Amino acid sequence: MLAAKLTSRLTLNVLRRIHRGTHYSCVYSLSNCLLHTTKGPHSDSSVSRVFYGHGAIRPSLRLHETQHYGRRSFSLSAATIVNSAPAAVQPYLRLMRLDKPIGTWLLYIPCTWSIALASDPGNLPHLGMLTLFGTGALLMRGAGCTINDMWDRDFDKKVSRTATRPIAAGEISRMQALVFLGGQLSLALGVLLCLNYYSIALGAASLSLVVTYPLMKRITYWPQFVLGLTFNWGALLGWAAVKGSCDWSVCLPLYFSGVMWTLIYDTIYAHQDKEDDVKVGVKSTALRFQEQTKTWLSGFTVAMMSGLIAVGINAEQTLPYYAVLSTVAIHLTHQIYTLDINNPDDCWKKFASNRNLGLLLFLGIVAGNLWKERQETLLQNEEEVR
């Protein structure tokens, strides 16, 4: 009887303390720990399979909740938004990697470079085009992930990290995935049809790369090169959408630089997967380069920067552009020099930092284009003085 009373009294005291917030942080820390160790899939052996460590999800923005004297603040991540969707819809959102937007960013950024370069001197990039290409990048990245998971269903089942992908886990059948793929491609076609005829033909030509890329890791140690050809098609398409055709003196070196950039960040990313890739029998540049990775990445960096310098010369870019190029070169040099190819978490951080690098280059192009008007004004004033 005494023991029962003591137990009851102790329980009541604990509940009162929790109510006052004394032990809230302990309770929340436990729930937060469970939230951040939830397992989940991503994509193929390259950019769209984002994870870290031993398979825990690393969303681009985490759900964060704190309490201070009874107040809570929330910041929503892409994964949280997907998890709040209806249960029947969630597998499809995860199939198109809507909860992991880094791949969409890396597909979209070369489009922004091209659109910004094609803008008239002194003008900002066309907002409508940026929005249209952002929508297209979201749809085409989702379609690529769907195709990849359809091809890799049997491979994914053999790896614990990828076994929970919707198709591998049986949440979505191949027929359902095929219908969903048709819907994504139809919407993407609708976006493409908003462009001029030249851009429509150019955009349609990229579909063969989207379909065949997932097969490349079965037959070559250079799937990252094919991914680069696919992910940077927007470097051609953006300029064509604005101008009506491609200026190859600008578009080709920009496309080449984008491909080199993809080889850099996706080789870094592939080092996270090398053990699993060996197990399931797929290939990558990480397995091809191994301990010589930094040498190869340094070569890709030189090639990328050379291409971007050629872009600047041919597009008549100005001082802000070249100042940003210097920053990009320093960032890549530091990224490669400090890279630990045997540390998955470090590989993830280096890989993810390339989104900011790409956005920085976009801002450099915009600033350089706005600077053109100032230069022209100064030249006109000098001529008037003379």
Q: Could you explain how this protein is built, in words?
A:
The longest helix is centred in the last third of the chain and has 42 residues, at 344-385. Helix 5 (102-118) runs parallel beside helix 12 (234-243) and helix 6 (127-151) runs antiparallel to helix 8. 69% of the residues lie in helices and 3% in strands. A two-stranded antiparallel sheet has the order 1-2. The chain has helices at 2-20, 24-36, 78-83, 90-95, 102-118, 127-151, 153-157, 174-192, 197-204, 207-219, 223-231, 234-243, 248-270, 274-280, 285-289, 293-314, 319-337, 344-385, and strands at residues 64-68, 71-75. The chain has 386 residues and is mainly α. The radius of gyration is 24 Å and the shape is globular. Strand 1 and strand 2 form a beta hairpin. Mean pLDDT is 81; it is low at 1-75. The protein has 18 helices and two strands.
